[in-house]
TrEMBL record:
Keywords: Endonuclease, Hydrolase, Nuclease
Positions of the HNH domain: 198-253
Organism of origin: Roseinatronobacter bogoriensis subsp. barguzinensis
Gene Ontology molecular function terms on file: endonuclease activity; nucleic acid binding; zinc ion binding
Record-given protein name: HNH endonuclease
CDD domains in UniProt: HNHc
Length: 277
């Protein structure tokens, strides 16, 4: 079951973490499991996830560190407050029905204090269909755990800026915002918290396009480049999902984007009657 779902699991992990994923089938026990790690670190120098069936209709997911992961752990411990906040929010987005043990620490305030740090997530009472259960566990537990580690380690996706974004003063700061918006972990958490329904017009691409409709985008309600003084970044409240059209409309005004209500007013003026308030 797990072995046959490897490529789907890998695709979801790479989309959610922004990093290449290595994996291997684990047949060391009575029941077949799966080991996953960041490909460039291998399973000795970074975090490793083990995913195994547990009981009649459950799975146990364990995240730990390889024997030679000291350098990566030090890098994680040096992560900035924004990265730590996003990592904690990703882990905290795992449903309360999942028994989550973070080395005895609370969900909202855990720290990786040594190589002995472990996260153990136990999901029980899953759907009877084995393939569907594997998909649910990988999407709802493994992906946010690995995404949290990717954020702390500092995996980044470099996106080339559109030429028009550099046409005014302050473009360097705007570039930073655009890269943050496209951080795959931001997108993952935003969708886990708010779903894939546009918070401006109410359109849900996947309900219209099916599997190819994973095109929802992530928007900062307050552009980071416009802050007079730094403030704590709360990924749970500072991000909203927008469809590509509404996201583009919001950013047609520069340097201060339109608010969501501004865009809704323009839409109502043109005869639009639906949407998300």
């Amino acid at each position: 079951m797990i072995a046959g779902r490897q490529e789907k699991i890998r695709a979801e992990l790479e989309a959610g973490t922004g990093a290449a994923i290595g994996m291997a089938v684990d047949q060391s026990g009575i029941r077949t499991g799966l080991r996953l790690w960041f490909d460039d670190l291998d399973d000795r120098h970074g975090p490793v996830v083990e995913m195994k069936p547990f009981g009649m209709r459950g799975y146990r997911v364990t995240l730990g560190f390889g024997k030679f992961a000291g350098e990566v752990i030090r890098q994680i411990q040096a992560a900035g407050p924004d990265d730590v906040g996003l990592a904690r929010a990703l882990v905290n987005s795992i449903e309360e029905t999942v028994d989550l043990d973070l080395s005895g620490q609370p969900r909202s305030d855990w720290v990786i204090d040594s190589g002995a740090f472990r996260i153990t997530a136990t999901a029980r009472g899953l759907v009877a269909d084995p393939d569907e259960a594997v998909t649910l566990v990988s999407r709802d537990i493994v992906v946010p755990l690995m995404a949290a580690m990717a954020e702390l380690i500092g995996y980044d996706v470099i996106v080339e800026e559109e030429a028009e974004e550099a046409a005014y003063e302050g473009a360097i700061l705007v570039s930073t915002v655009r890269r943050r918006e496209r951080n795959p972990r931001n997108r993952l958490l935003c969708i886990r918290l708010h779903g894939e329904r546009c918070q401006c017009c109410g359109f849900e691409p996947k309900s219209f396009y099916g599997e190819i409709g994973g095109i929802i985008e992530v928007h900062h309600l307050e552009a980071l480049s416009l802050l007079d003084t730094p403030r704590p970044y709360d990924p749970a409240t500072d991000l909203v999902p927008l469809c590509p059209n509404c996201h583009r409309a919001v950013h047609t005004r520069r340097p201060v984007p339109f608010s969501l209500e501004d865009v809704r007013k323009h839409m109502r003026t043109s005869g639009w009657k639906g949407g998300s308030e």
